[in-house]
């Protein structure tokens, strides 16, 4: 047995009960091999010995953390500051216009949105007054939603607040919370002020002054109402927002059509979608799905029909 | 009389979204998974972190579990991966101080070794010194009681490799114990198979 006394595979096999009786007898007859086997068995016993238990609190914490991971459709909201940073980089490269121009575009767009309502009104005031109302509404939208009013000093603080708000939403129902809040910002400020305008004015507006595609794209880029959400969040987006006017409610938003999603796109933290509500392309406010593609391009789709708007 | 659902029932229910079943499943397997993590990472706090990550991974991947492997085997794979990840995180943290006794793996109870405090230090060092390639099969064999085929499945290596690595890992431990242990008090070992002495850890039935 001398030549085998340090054959750990044989000793290990003995420990596992897989060696022949002859091998066992040979090892036991050899003091050196027997000692080696004993040391090895001691190691086995020590490895098999109990470990200190986790504290009840830590144990419960681990299980709770795992249970939290199982919560369906946990919202995954991209950091707004990160999104802004990306946009800033993009802006630097493209030489995009400053925030005040975006605000102006927002004012113009909301002015256009208010136009059908204004046309349907019977009361008359001044065009200037209506325009002021719409512009004020736009200011509210830009301030509430994008935080980009062109004043850099304010922007950081607002970004921080928005980011905090977004993180809070991530802990709860982000899609609904952020969607509704943002929608409310747009719809209420638009509708309320527009309705006020309806009550007091009807103006001969130049409907041809629709923002250009580039202007609208900038607006959407900079005032994205909902940053990037998971597809589950987007699918859960069913606000059925209405705008009061003319005695009946006008449905402005609808559920996102699942068929609109490009299944090749990554789902999760990298979900490349955003939602906006403004859509002058379709002749009236609708829900627009914004798709950010890997190649840097952006598509705008009617979130209900999936028609590509841009 | 068996009043609790077996793992298969719990898993199927959990896969259908039954959170209560999932919680029972996690509660049932936590200690076993943590024990593996503790042996591999060697420190209590890190073991808890690794066990938590393992449980989270189980939850996130439960829909992929198809029942072809035993749940214990499947979860051991996840636990060992989580433990290895924790070890690597620890290295990155660069705070690998070994002077906090509370965080060291404590060896108590079943081993009749002459000097218990020496044994504790020995096994801490021994397990830490074992390369992952040897530590994992040894832990799965001697702590969890898995057979070679099951270990091969968990670690995705050939059964022959498992046998060799277990022998080498045990040999390494024997080297360390032999260097510092008290020869007179060491146990004699007879053949007849290895039995896990840890009540928290149960291997499969077909070992």
Keywords:
heterodimer; A: 310 residues; mainly alpha; 3-stranded antiparallel beta sheet; 11 helices; 5 strands; B: 207 residues; 62% helix
Q: How would you characterize this protein structure?
A:
The complex is a heterodimer of chains A (310) and B (207). Chain A has 310 residues and is mainly alpha-helical. Helix content of chain A is 54%, strand content 7%. Chain A has 11 helices and 5 strands; from the N terminus they run αααααααααααβββββ. Chain A has helices at residues 8-15, 21-28, 31-48, 56-69, 80-94, 99-120, 127-146, 152-171, 174-200, 213-222, 231-235, and strands at 242-245, 248-251, 273-276, 288-292, 298-302. A 3-stranded antiparallel beta sheet of chain A has the order 3-4-5, with no helix packed on it. In chain A, α6 crosses α7. Chain A is elongated and about 85 Å long. Chain A starts with 7 loop residues before the first helix and ends in an 8-residue tail after the last strand. The model of chain A is unreliable at 73-81, 114-213, 218-230, 237-254, 265-271 and 278-282 (pLDDT under 50). Chain B is mostly helical and 207 residues long. Helix content of chain B is 62%, strand content 0%. Chain B is built from 8 helices and no strands. Chain B has helices spanning 7-15, 19-41, 44-61, 71-93, 116-129, 132-142, 148-155, 159-180. The longest helix of chain B has 23 residues, at 19-41. Chain B is globular. The relative contact order of chain B is 0.13. The chains are: A mainly alpha (310), B mainly alpha (207). The interface between A and B is large, with 44 and 72 residues.
